Amino acid sequence: MDAIPSFGVLTGWDFFMEERIHAVTVTIYNRDLAYMKVSELLHQYARFINLRVGYPVPSRNIAIIFLILTMTNDALGALTGKLGQISSVKVKANTLSV
Question: What three-state secondary structure class fits 46?
Answer without folding.
Answer: helix
